[in-house]
Amino acid sequence: MSFKPKILIVRQLALGDVLLATPIIKQLYLDHSGDCEIDVLTRKPEAFINNPYINEVISPEGYLSFQKNYNKTINLDLAYENYPNMHILEAYAKYSHGSIKKILDQQIGIFTTTANEYSINNFIVDNFKKKYVVIHMRKDTWPSRNLRESTWREIVDGLLKETNVEIAQVGSEHEISFNHNERLINCLNKFTIQELKLLISKSVCYIGVDSGTLHVAASTNIPIVSVFTSAHHDFRKPLGRKDTDIFIPITPEIECYGCQSRLQPPITGVICSVGDPFSPPCKDSIPVIKIIKNVIANIN
Question: Regarding beta strands 6-10 and 72-75, do their DSSP bridges make them parallel or antiparallel, or are they unpaired?
């Protein structure tokens, strides 16, 4: 009778951080040639739907009554928060394998189905007449990552003026979308993570900020143009994609860019090293024209 180790991975929040655990999970599965049981404790179970490397997904509340003994527990909560000068995946790998070099496939894994494909293909046929970009205009926690609505409007209007693409606006129902032009398609709160991956994968470019949706885009090979503020792009950029896959970080024109990596860990809340953490100057120092030019350069 062979020994089949039982492994528990813990990463409760947030969506992007949870998605970044997927390369760790895959490597653990491969380390054991699939002869193991990997469970995940999280508050974002939607990140692991269809994941072939996972045995079971458990909520923190459910874990209290979960009758199972594990041979190994890898707790990734506060992993990168304790190492803010590392890429998130590098911090995870430090906990799980000792080195990121041991993570052979570093791209985020989101697994889709034929039904997902069918749903998205129908949505595209029904809603788009030409090629489209996907944009996520975030409005959530961490104020430094929330650009002003007027800034997003300037970006959207620039794309409408300078290109003929349609614009799929994605995100949660409380986030930003515009409706002043027929080429603006409101897609808020319409898709699962798996469907969102497919929508992005069939677009010509993804535009957004440092967020969970950025990491969904990172699971595709589509050009990414993304804004970064308190967290430096070196510690959030997509890993594991082909060298030819385009990633363009847009950074604020401010000396304190990426301050998160220079502050005393753990970094677990709203921060700003020079001003009001709820209205930090970095989010208002984004070169909008640079975003528009880079999108244009990558959709032709």
Answer: parallel
Q: Using N-to-C axis directions, what is the helix angle for 22-31 and 88-96, rounded to 10°?
A: 30
Distance CA 159, CA 164 (A): 8
Neighbouring residues of 123: CB distance < 8 A, sequence distance ≥ 6: 190, 199
Whole-structure pTM over 0.90, yes or no?
Answer: yes
Task: Please report, to the nearest 10 degrees, the dihedral formed by the alpha carbons of residues 184, 290, 210, 149 taken in order.
Answer: -50
CATH annotation of 6-102: 3.40.50.2000
268 SS3 class: coil
For CA atoms 220, 221, 224, 230, the dihedral sign is positive
Domain ranges of the chain: 6-102, 114-297
Q: What is the mean pLDDT of residues 277-282?
A: 90
| DSSP state, residue 264 | P
Statement: residue 2 has pLDDT above 70: no
Q: Which residues pair with 10 in a beta bridge?
A: 41, 75
Both tokens of 30, joined, read 């491969």
Structure tokens at 83: 């190492």
Its CATH architecture, for the domain 114-297, is 3-Layer(aba) Sandwich (3.40)
Q: Which of 6, 30, 34 is nearest to 106 (CA)?
A: 30
- List C-alpha distances in Å: 214 to 16, 100, 101, 133: 8, 21, 23, 14
Q: Do the two domains 6-102 and 114-297 of this chain adopt the same fold?
A: yes
CB atoms within 10 A of CB 11: 27
Per residue in 210-230, pLDDT (tens digit) is 999 999 999 999 999 999 999
